[in-house]
Amino acid sequence: MLELLRRNLGIKAKKHTKLKKNSPSALSSSQKRMLVFGALLFCNQKSAVFSFSTDKERRVHLRKEYTIIDKESAVKVLGKLLNLEEANTNDIRLLIDNAELNLIKTAIAKGLRVKKEEIDKVSSTYAWDVCRLVSISKWCFCSGYISKQEMWDPISEGVEIASERGTNWEAYTISFLLGRTIQGLEINDIINESKYLYYSKGPLFRRIKDINVYRKYKFKYSKVIKH
Fold it and tell me: Is residue 166 left, alpha or beta, with left meaning phi > 0 and alpha meaning psi from -120 to 50?
């Protein structure tokens, strides 16, 4: 009846995104903490950190940015990220002090509103690969390319790597931004979300869901629980 009234009035019914049937209905504290390692990209892509809803835009993003179209291509990309392939190459460039790197560090410091000395302390871009590993794993699961187990396995391994290499969420954010900008991507495309997460505080007149996750979940953990 409601649909008939809508048609008569020329009103289009709103499409509601449904959760996948095999999507986790409830996340443990450990699972939520692991997903926070992908928060920089979740927030940048307007994707809720703890949501597992299907999203056509995510599938398009996976295809365009990573050529992921099925399980085989998904597993291949996740394997490269888990091996920190881009991060390892970036870290070599971090050892070479030059004008280009100095400009990158200055831009990150300005964007995050921190002293450049804080940027200089970070010596690895591991977070660039780990953050993408976590976010892409979840999006591949939501797109139906991999199973729940195939999602959590690389995520938990990536988080263990981050816990071993990193010290805190602030340094993790800087590590991610260093890796991203060294790869030639624009910092302005993500600096606002990075800053909000860095300080666990969004803009004054705008509420952003889950923007305080760095404050709620510990960076270091005694042991990552695998699922």
Answer: beta
Task: Supply 175's token pair.
Answer: 């590590």
Residues linked to residue 19 through DSSP beta bridges, in sequence order: 53
Q: Which two tokens stand for residue 17?
A: 């995104």
Closest CA to 32 of 183, 191, 218, 185: 218
More confident residue, 56 or 103: 103
Q: How far apart are the first and last CA of the chain?
A: 45
- The answer to whether 126 and 162 have CB atoms below 8 angstroms apart is yes
**Tokens 């505080």 belong to residue:** 201
Amino acid at 67: T
- How far is Cα 83 from Cα 3, in angstroms, rounded to an integer? 51
Q: What is the pLDDT of residues 44-80, one digit of tens each?
A: 988 889 988 877 888 999 999 999 999 999 999 999 9
Write the DSSP symbol of residue 222.
Answer: S
Which residue in 114, 126, 133, 124 sits closest to 42, CA to CA? 133
Distances (CA, A) of 224 to 42, 117, 137, 162, 219: 21, 31, 17, 11, 11
Q: How many Å separate Cα 167 from the centre of its chain?
A: 18
Weakest mean pLDDT among 10-14, 68-72, 178-182, 196-200: 10-14
Residue with tokens 């599938």: 59
135 by DSSP, 3-state: which? helix
